[in-house]
Amino acid sequence: MTPRAWALVTFTVLVVAVVVAAAVLVPWQRPPVPRADQLAALRELPVDQVERGRALRAALRPGRYGAMLAGLLVALLLGFTPVGARLVEVAGRPFGGHWAAQALLGGLLVVFLADLLTLPFAAWRHRILTEHGLATQGWAGWGLDLVRSYAVGAVIATVALLGFYTVVRLAPRWWWALAAAGAAALVVLLSFVLPVLVEPVFNKFTPMPDGPVRTQLLELAERDGVPVRDVLVADASRRTRAVNAYVSGFGPTRRIVVYDNLLLEAPPAELAAVVAHELGHARARDVLTGTGLGALGAAATVVGLYLLGSWRPVLRAAGVADIAEPRAIALLLAVVTLVGLVATPAQALVSRRIEARADAYALALHGDPAAYAAVHRRLSAINLADPDPPRWEYLYSATHPSTVERIAAARRYADRAGR
Ligand SMILES: [Zn+2]
Questions:
Q1: Ligand 1: distance of its center to the CA of 247 in Å?
Q2: Angle between helices 329-366 and 212-223 (to 10 degrees)
């Protein structure tokens, strides 16, 4: 069998593995909350709250989709015309066109060009968030955050680019197998180190101060046997008024994080409801599920890119002879951008299912549906969320059930439990 035939088999196996893993690990069986219940929940929300949330989301929408479109156009222009290949050549020229210089400098140039061109959209977004009182950061702090995220992106891109093109040189016929394994390993590694290496770049984390709230939350964790060493508080208030909580990492790096402003704004019962949701993620090992699916998807994408490399018209359009040469970086990125846009609704659907399971878990563990509904009313009001976003947008990118879905789910639980 030729390397290409092996790649075709591997690609098929990986795609099947993604589908099977998603079918088995994602909770699909839970019936959705009836629309009538959602509408009832919506009618009970204060009209001005709903309107304020919708006004902000409407104001953000042109920038959001404008940035998406601009990013796509740049990626397509660089990837499917010889422009991207020329840029990589130019970047490598001061170093005599050495492959490593082309791979690293050319790669970073192509990666950041799209970011640079969508910068005006990001600035516009910050202005709107400031006008609506959600952003608490001035332009200097915003700019510093941007530099930090570029720096983090540059470190990850450097590892990926140098690793990839080293593998290509060491194994010209089988690079796709090694690179697929490497991409999967990188996804797992990033998810593992994210809470200890990346998140501290943006926020300071401190253990939740001793007191009745902390005791209650750790008791909640212990009651259900979720091993949680601590609940951390992030100093998110220096950036935003928005409130949130999340769980990240796995194994020794796993942590539950609560925004400091949530601690200030929500009464203890509501805070416990939020933490119970995060415990649900920890208990079901959702970070690991997401990481596993991401790793399989990354590996499949790499093998898919190799297979695409035998499609002559694409190479000709990009002005390259081989998909594995550094000059084809822009082509790789263009394909990855397209795959990302197409995969977004599938990822969002998987995420919503996993979030709904954490909601159900929290209701059962914490057993206070009134507090659960109350905290989601509060989150939606503070975050200026649209409690019932447009259907198309929800289907395309909503990673969480809508506020009205969550409130309605809490009601149903209360009715069934007779509370
Ligand atoms: Zn969640």
A1: 8
A2: 90
Distance 290 CA to ligand 1 centre (A): 12
Give residue-wise pLDDT tens across range 278-315: 999 999 999 999 999 999 999 999 999 999 999 999 99
**Angle between the N-to-C axes of helices 47-79 and 107-117, in degrees from 0 to 180, rounded to the nearest 10:** 140
Distance from residue 94's CA to the centre of ligand 1 (Å): 48
Residues of the chain scoring pLDDT < 70: 419
Residues 6+ apart with CB under 8 A from 73: none
CA of 217 to the centre of ligand 1 (A): 16
State percent of the chain over pLDDT 70: 100
| Beta-carbon contacts of residue 419 (< 8 Å; ≥ 6 apart) | 367, 369, 370
pLDDT of res. 419: 57
Global pTM value? 0.93
